[in-house]
Amino acid sequence: MVFDVAETGAQLRAGLVHFALCVDAEELADCLLIYLAELHKWNTAYNLTAVRDPRQMLPRHIYDSLSAVPFMHGERIVDAGTGAGLPGIPLALCYPDRQFTLLDSNGKKIRFVDHVVRRLGLSNVTAVQARVEEFQPPRLFTAAVSRAFSSLRDFAAGTEHMLAPGARLVAMKGRFPADELATLENDLPQWRLQQSASLQVPELEGERHILVLERL
């Protein structure tokens, strides 16, 4: 499928109206279009995402990622299991004054993320190829975010060593994960649910929830 810049750009700008973002909407749209064009091009060779249609990439990847913007915490954030840079790239564009580390064990995906970081000139993003549970950051993070990366228990257990006191976990989910939450509270009682919200993502069908966890 051909990437139609004009069509995708019009759809993107219409979608961004639904978000109360404290950044220049036109500049954000331009950067996100570059990201999408690169993702579409690389996807044909490297299979970075199962979503092939750029019109579907917008709600399923971009809008979904932007829905997490109000829930970010602190100045140093790690995107655990970032894949092709989601939600880390959109979040970093919305928070240029915060530092983001985009972490994944898949080499081709991290090479793509690093390419996009250089293409967009994102000085606040570092791409790292490593397993989440093995990565030792030079400074502890104030938050970790994941987008359907793992269960809540595995997310907390895998990132806990990277987090500073007072740090939070931001987990993006489909249906509200009641069973995962119960397992987390049973196995890792030091973590508790601080906030949860049902998200309305433009053009995206199905349930979306976000959970913010804090350590006691």
Q: Which helices and strands occur, and which strands form pairs?
A:
Elements (H helix, E strand, L loop, with lengths): L4 H12 L8 H22 L7 H13 L9 E5 L7 H7 L4 E6 L2 H14 L4 E5 L11 E7 L4 H8 L3 E11 L4 H10 L3 E8 L10 E7 L1
Parallel strand pairs: 1-2, 1-4, 2-3, 4-5
Antiparallel strand pairs: 5-7, 6-7
Helix pairs in contact: 1-2, 1-3, 2-3, 2-4, 2-5, 6-7
Describe the structure.
This protein has 216 residues and is of the alpha/beta class. It has a single domain (5-215), classed as Rossmann fold, CATH 3.40.50. The protein is built from 7 helices and 7 strands. It has helices spanning 5-16, 25-46, 54-66, 88-94, 107-120, 152-159, 178-187; strands at residues 76-80, 99-104, 125-129, 141-147, 163-173, 191-198, 209-215. The chain has a 7-stranded mixed beta sheet, sandwiched between helices. β2 (99-104), α5 and β3 form a beta-alpha-beta unit. α1 (5-16) packs across α2 and α2 (25-46) crosses α3 (54-66). The model has no long low-confidence stretch (mean pLDDT 95).
